[in-house]
Amino acid sequence: VTYCLALTASFVGRSAAMGAGRLRFARCFVWWGPTASWLVCANYLLGVVLVQKPWTLRFYFGVGALWWALAGLAALIIGRTFEKELSSTKGSSDREEAGIVGRPGDTSADEL
To answer: Where are the alpha helices (DSSP H) in 1-112?
Structure first.
């Protein structure tokens, strides 16, 4: 279940970056992205607590918990930064057209 939350959080983040209503999705991702990652982290920590043998499985759960904790922190930082960028951009609203995230007038994406 928590992996599904993390997957849907990634779709929300993608919608914030690429789709219409970017500011609204960015605001949603600010809390959904980290929360989903930290719930997956909690599942891995549960595995660390409940599993006694083999030690390699506990190690796997520990590394997984660390990974998802850092992913949640990254999602929090990226989400807040992206929301702040969209909020400060002149003319940003929920009625924005779909486009590539970047500064207005940035043509570097067109060169690809």
So the answer is: 2-18, 22-50, 55-88
Q: Which amino acid is at 74?
A: A
pLDDT digit string, tens, across residues 64-76: 999 999 999 988 8
pTM over 0.70: no
Cβ partners under 8 Å of residue 51, min gap 6:
57, 58, 61
Q: For residue 55, give every residue at least 6 positions away whose Cβ sits within 8 Å of its Cβ, in sequence order, or none.
A: none
Tell me phi and psi for residue 2, to 5 degrees: -70, -30
CB under 8 Å to 89, separation ≥6 — which residues? 104
CA–CA dist 68, 94 (Å, integer): 30
- What three-state secondary structure class fits 6? helix
Helices 55-88 and 2-18: crossing angle in degrees, nearest 10, is: 30
Contact 23, 54 (CB under 8 A): no
